[in-house]
Amino acid sequence: MTLSIASTGAVCAILAVAHLVSILIALARVRAAIGANAISKRFDPVSILRPMCGVENFAEDTLRSAFVLDYPHYELLLCVAQSTDPVVPLTRRLIAAHPHVAARLLIGNERISGNPKLNNLVKGWAAARHDWIVMGDSNVLMPPDYVERLLAAWRPDTGLVCSPPIGCAPDGLWAELECAFLNTYQARWQYAADALGFGFAQGKTMLWRCDLLDAGGGLRALAAEVAEDAAATKLVRGLGLRVRLVGSPFPQPLGARSLRDVWQRQVRWARLRRDTFKLFFLPEIAAGAVLPLAASVAFAAESGWPVAGVAAAFAAAWYGAEALLAHAAGWHLSCRAPLAWMLRDILLPVLWVKSWMGNDFVWRGHAMHVADRSSSA
Fold first, then answer.
1. Do 14 and 81 lie in a common domain?
2. How many angstroms separate the Cα of 301 from the Cα of each of 85, 139, 304, 357?
3. Number of helices and strands (H, E) in the chain?
4. Does residue 232 share a domain with residue 156?
5. Same domain, residue pair 249 and 291
6. Which of 204, 219, 241, 363 would disulfide-bridge 165, Cβ 3.0–4.6 Å?
7. What are the phi and psi torsion angles at 333 (to 5°)?
8. How many CB atoms lie under 10 A from the CB of residue 96?
9. CA 121 to centroid of chain Cα atoms
């Protein structure tokens, strides 16, 4: 066997093994949580902060889910920057329909960073009455045992518990593509990193203990980075603690998506990852199926094997493992999912290159820059 054949075979094998191991880790974590029904038996009072901006797909469903939690002692602080925001009437109606829930609508904006979500949350953090505080985005669908599942993941060495978003209810191919990015790719690798002790925060859902965040500088310390989850990761690690993931992640219903919206969102996240965790971002160029599939084709050609057959077998094994994870975890799986997975993997190298070609992005109508860490204007 020549050196060329050996090297292409090694590349294919290493990347395929990494892919399968990450799937097995995510599968084990999620299935263990489902099998054990991992919920906390503690019922400490909790404050839930929900930053809101505009009326998104499934807005009424996701916002209502916070009013029907099984948890016996929580307050709900609904934060909006402007009184004219179209989500305000919906919020007032939900508060009126659930008088038994200690819910308040807080309006106002205090600029402590270039991050509009963080600026929106300042008043909620100041108003929170309890030592445990959850920051949960408005487009997260909270299951009835939402708080118990978060608390169950807390350990003595924990500084923050979070959950990756799991896309569900997609409408159309581009929403399927977003599911492909969120579920069996990003969530999978996040669980693998967590299992290896390199857990990082995800801003969709974050459970804090108030005294720990205060020890790290308080909510304003999250303005140290453009993305509050990146700042949270660095803050927790600086305290000598770990970011942990909830056992079974929470869904985010998607509805219809445009390719432009999906692409811009992925570029934004990629540029933020590149800026804040460069060493961990660099290997993402090889994270999808393109490089190992090309290596398998080269290996087959150099070895005299049927190229088409090897490529088909490799793709079937690669995406079959993803399908197994999605099915076993109860995540969205449809006949269009393999097409979305393949399209995602074709786009991943393009996305990686695109992330290095600029620092600007737009988030909810706000022009932002990955290096914008100013605390005030």
1. no
2. 60, 48, 5, 35
3. 14, 11
4. yes
5. no
6. 204
7. -150, 125
8. 9
9. 19
Q: What are phi and psi of 198, to 5 degrees?
A: -115, 35
Q: Does 108 lie in the same domain as 227?
A: yes
**In the predicted structure, residue 226 carries a pLDDT above the cut 80:** yes
Say if residue 201 is exposed, middle or buried (CB neighbours under 10 Å; 0-12, 13-18, 19+). Answer: buried
Domain count along the chain: 2
Strands 165-171 and 250-256: parallel
Instruction: Clarify whether residues 18 and 121 are in a common domain.
Output: no
Residue 339 is which amino acid?
Answer: L
CB–CB of 332/183 below 8 Å? yes
Reported as a single tens digit per residue, the pLDDT across 328-375 is: 999 999 999 999 999 999 999 999 999 999 887 766 666 667 765 443
- Give first-to-last CA distance, the chain, whole Å: 63
Closest CA to 311 of 298, 324, 302, 322: 298
Structure tokens belonging to residue 377: 């204007």
Last residue of a domain, one of 257, 287, 304: 257
Q: Which domain holds residue 317?
A: 3-26+279-363
d(CA 240, CA 37): 29
Same domain, 14 and 56: no
CATH of the domain at 126: 3.90.550.10
What is the reported pLDDT for 198? 84
Asked whether residue 62 falls in the same domain as residue 150, the answer is: yes
Please spell the DSSP secondary structure of 209-228, one letter per residue.
EHHHHHHTT-GGGGGGSSSH
The model's pLDDT over 170-196, given as tens digits with 9 standing for 90+, comes to: 999 999 999 999 999 999 999 999 988
One domain for residues 108 and 47: yes
